[in-house]
Design a protein that fits this description.
single chain; 276 residues; OB fold (Dihydrolipoamide Acetyltransferase, E2P); 4 domains; 5-stranded antiparallel beta sheet; 18 strands
Length: 276
């Protein structure tokens, strides 16, 4: 079966004036227009192509790689507006359409939005939606506490930053646990810090518990080496000073220097810490 909105590996069946016809193992065929035909090929070769609908709503393929695929979230820019919705650049010749009913708020030309790409069953068209919450569910979780997960920044709130977890769930990183600048649509790694009774997920951008000691200790060691073996920081230093210099919480810093001290890699003085 040839899947719209996804990459398909298809066999070159024949060459025609409009382009190459490709097929799958089930006898389905689809056109690869001339503009995307490789400079050299043979009948029977396999090609990796993306299937979608062209401007005439005909199924075609392209060798271009889109910024997102069906059933995925991505940060996309609005290129144009119409009486029916917005068009977003997703790396293909034909933009991704987001109808008004699928806009969390009215989109503006030139601005960027986190959207979900899906196949509209009624029209069989690939469309986008910025109403991301309806495509996320925490009812049946596929993650556990302390799991490392893939995150995508989806929204900034008063409490913290909402994240899309593994393209499936929703979670939150609290403002007082963020030690780096985050941008809408940014992708990064994180850890499931806590799962609440209502299945709400608290996230951390740092490893939890004992797992946090090793990477934090390495950050401290790197900073010491960059500053000629000494830093004016210790367990009584101001948390904001630690955050500004090392990008970590005071709690993580204290664990890190405790670990390094036990390993006899540093000494702790009244003025700070020094490499041995």
């Amino acid at each position: 079966m040839i899947h719209l909105g996804q990459l398909n590996t298809l066999e070159i069946l024949r060459e025609t004036p409009p382009g190459l016809f490709l097929g799958d193992d089930e006898g389905n065929e689809i056109l690869l227009p001339n503009k995307y035909v490789p400079t050299s090929f043979e009948i029977g070769d396999k090609l990796s192509v993306f299937a979608y609908l062209d401007s005439h709503e005909r199924p075609v393929t392209t060798t271009l790689k889109p910024f997102t695929k069906v059933n995925e979230f991505a940060l996309l820019q609005v290129t144009a507006l119409s009486d029916f919705g917005a068009f977003l650049d997703w790396g293909l010749e034909k933009d991704l359409f987001v109808p008004f009913k699928e806009q969390a708020r009215d989109m503006q030309e030139g601005k960027w939005y986190v959207v979900y790409c899906y196949l509209d069953e009624e029209t069989n068209r690939l469309v986008g939606s910025s109403k991301t919450n309806k495509f996320l569910s925490n009812e049946e979780l596929t993650v556990e506490r302390f799991d490392e997960v893939d995150l995508m920044v989806s929204r900034f709130t008063e409490l913290g930053v909402e994240m899309i977890i593994n393209q499936t769930h929703k979670g939150l990183v609290y403002n007082d646990e963020i030690y780096q600048e985050l941008k809408l649509g940014e992708r990064l790694k994180g850890v499931v810090k806590k799962i609440r009774e209502d299945n709400k997920i608290d996230l951390s951008l740092q490893h939890i518990g004992y797992k946090n000691i090793e990477p934090s200790a390495q950050i401290v060691l790197d900073a010491l080496q960059q500053h000629k073996g000494s830093l004016p920081l210790h367990d009584k230093s101001d948390p904001e000073d630690i955050k500004r210099r090392l990008g970590m919480s005071k709690k993580s810093f204290k664990k890190a220097i405790g670990s390094l001290y036990k390993q006899k890699q540093i000494v702790i003085t009244e003025d700070g810490i020094e490499l041995l």
